[in-house]
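Hello Y.,

Per our agreement to keep a running log of every chain we model this quarter, I'm adding this entry. I've kept the format consistent with earlier entries: sequence first, then predicted structure.
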Amino acid sequence: MPRFRYQAITASGATERGEMDAENRLAAFRQLQQADKTPVKVLDAGDGSLSTLLDMELGARTISHADRAALLGELAALLKAGLTVEEAVDLTVDIADNRLARAALGDAAQALRAGTPLSRALDDRRLAFAGADLALIAAGERSGALGPILSRLAEQQAQALSRRSALVSALVYPAILTLTACAVIILMVTVVVPQFEPVFAAAGTDLPWLTAQVRALSTGIVAGLPFAALTVAVLAVAVPLALRRPDTRLRLDGWLLALPGLGRFLLLSQAARFARALALLLEGGVALQSALTLSARTVTNRALGKRYLDMVAAVQQGTPLWQAITGAGVMTPRGLRLIRLGEETASLPATLKRIADSAEHDIDTALKRATALLTPAVTLIMGGVVGIIVWSVMSAILDINRLV
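Predicted structure for the entry above:
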């Protein structure tokens, strides 16, 4: 009989780790539950790889966005080909390249054979499906349109992945250029300028004002390097710990939202995410109030998330959607007009898609402009700073030569 390594929470709240024999992972989960233990994870004891041990001790990782989009696309294609849900999941297990996805899908296949719906079987933190995605899959199961809904989800996630990849690609060169510029400037100030210190000290005359400022800056930076390194090390530990606190994260998100330019970018990106999720849920047959609650959970900025939850509460009290969104201040005036029009014409899903498309277009345009301006801006700044440093040194040397 197979042997499994498990981690569970006992009735007293203690964490228990151990090994057990069971027919499969699902049976192991059930044995733990029957023993009044809450299973956290169950892994094959025969897999002694470092990654598996780390999963057990530190918590299971999640699959990537690309793997998740590919998984949805494969399931949709197999269902379209006429396979049952169980057969589609079993085949997806066989063709999955990712070890983590294979293990999670294997558990999902066992759950399906035990009568669990697909939406619940896929509710595994290793797969990291959002609540809105799982609700949409559940709606597809109820309506008999699971294949088309999986196709739409796969298409949406593939588009989001494509936009993210395009953004990363566009920022690679400016990022490398910026790091190179910073490295060159630091090298000039901390290495090149100090090489001329004996010349400056032996000059016996006052240095030009610009040279004196650069010399003072160089001396200060060199003297402060140990303190700067210590500060960076402390911040590298303290900042992630501080961001784990909900109140700190909420204040930071609110501050980012208030920044000129960046605030509008965040407002548009979160509105696009919310509108896209809400449109998919409504098309899948999810009731408006449930769809609003699930869509609000897709908002990643916590300050905006509170506004969205306030908007959902207002709708639950009978306020029209466009009025609730107006009071929450989570969309642009154009988006508000479109939502009001969609409510009045009973075409809200299509209107929400237009809002998402428009917001994503505005975001893409703004990012393209920013990245197009960033490269020449960094080049000019680097050239200007290096030129000032070189001129300050050369002017001092020329003055000294004239005195000699």
